[in-house]
Specification:
It is built from two helices and eight strands. With 124 residues, the chain is α/β, with parallel strands linked by helices. The chain starts with a strand and ends in a 5-residue tail after the last strand.
Length: 124
């Protein structure tokens, strides 16, 4: 079995497209007011316009049951982290080594936490 896509519900499609495309750097597959997809080397990341406003006015590092945390892989986590901090993205966890990988965590514009990792042996 293979995971084909993950859906992130967003309160503001345009703001979220700018974030995932221009800040994170995911290639845009297509965009519409209600549904947008990004190309990744694995599953498709889809944004879906939420019917309600974000309930995460203040992002929290706690993860309640029923939530998902997307994880991305990059070749150079230090460069990615520099780009995130320069763009004012909230960093929950600075890059650090955990279980054989370097990992950092950030919040998207709606307060959804996502992880970014760099495997050992890849460029630093």
């Amino acid at each position: 079995m293979r995971l084909n896509y993950a859906i992130v519900f967003v309160s503001d499609m345009k703001r979220s497209v700018v974030f995932y495309r221009d800040v994170i750097g995911l290639p845009l597959k297509f965009e519409s007011p209600e549904w947008t997809e990004f190309v990744t080397e694995g599953a498709t990341l889809a944004l879906h316009k939420s019917d309600s406003a974000s309930n995460n006015e203040v992002p929290s590092s706690e993860t309640p049951a029923g939530r998902c945390r997307p994880g991305f892989g990059v070749a150079d986590l230090d460069e990615f982290h520099r780009r995130m901090t320069e763009n004012g993205v909230i960093c929950v966890q600075e890059p650090k080594s955990i279980f054989g990988a370097r990992i950092a965590q950030y919040f998207d514009p709606d307060g959804l936490a996502f992880s970014v990792s760099q495997q050992r042996g890849e460029s630093r």
